[in-house]
Design goal:
This protein is an alpha/beta fold and 172 residues long. It is built from four helices and nine strands. The strands form two sheets. Strands 4-3-2-5-6-7 form a six-stranded mixed sheet, with helices on both faces. A three-stranded antiparallel sheet has the order 1-9-8. The protein is globular, with a radius of gyration of 16 Å. The structure holds guanosine-5'-monophosphate (5GP).
């Protein structure tokens, strides 16, 4: 049976939120060229829009992580599938993530990247599900808080599908 999709966040609203985040980032990094680290693959669409609205110089890098096995959601054990291309020591770094759910992925990423001695490390997430949090982690830049529902589109997938939808949908 097909899963039904229900439009949840329109592209115009997404654009507004992304623009506001970009303005906040640009204001905070006037003197720096931050390295924006996109978490593959979900953050790709958000990242592409965000960087074009940030009116300061930035550099891009990407990291891909995967969770180990079925216990993922409770173990918080994450494996790096594709690491950064560049050395971030002494750099201002912004992790760009599609959505924060339990927070375990970002907690792991933050700890791992901190060990590389960046000058600063912040998090930008398009969506946040605060109800689901298992660890104490907050993004520095958030687009929208959403309830505990599964969403797809604008980079977010269900079994690799729906990433290319321009709006965000609830999947039921
Ligand atoms: P966390 O470690 O915070 O629990 O998980 C974050 C990751 O789970 C996100 O990067 C995303 O890949 C996936 N995820 C969490 N909630 C959703 C959702 O509502 N829709 C989709 N498509 N992925 C989600």
């Amino acid at each position: 049976m097909e899963n039904s999709l229900q439009k949840y966040i329109d592209r115009a609203e997404i654009e507004q939120r992304v623009k506001a985040m970009a303005q906040n980032i640009a204001a905070d990094y006037r003197e720096e060229t931050p390295v924006m680290v996109g978490v593959l693959k979900g953050a790709v669409v958000f990242m592409a829009d965000l960087i074009r609205k940030v009116e300061i110089p930035v550099e891009l890098d990407f990291i891909a992580v995967s969770s180990y096995g079925a216990s993922t959601s409770t173990s918080g054990i994450v494996r790096i599938l594709k690491d950064l291309d560049q050395n971030i020591e002494g750099r201002e770094v912004i992790i760009v993530e599609d959505i924060i759910d339990t927070g375990l992925t970002l907690q792991y990423l933050k700890e791992t990247l901190y060990q590389r001695k960046p000058k600063g490390l912040r998090l930008a997430a398009l969506l946040d599900k605060p109800e689901r949090r298992q660890v104490n982690i907050e993004a520095d830049y958030v687009g929208l808080n959403i309830p505990d529902k599964f969403v797809v589109g604008y980079g977010l997938d269900f079994n690799e599908k729906h990433r290319n939808l321009p709006d965000i949908y609830l999947m039921e």
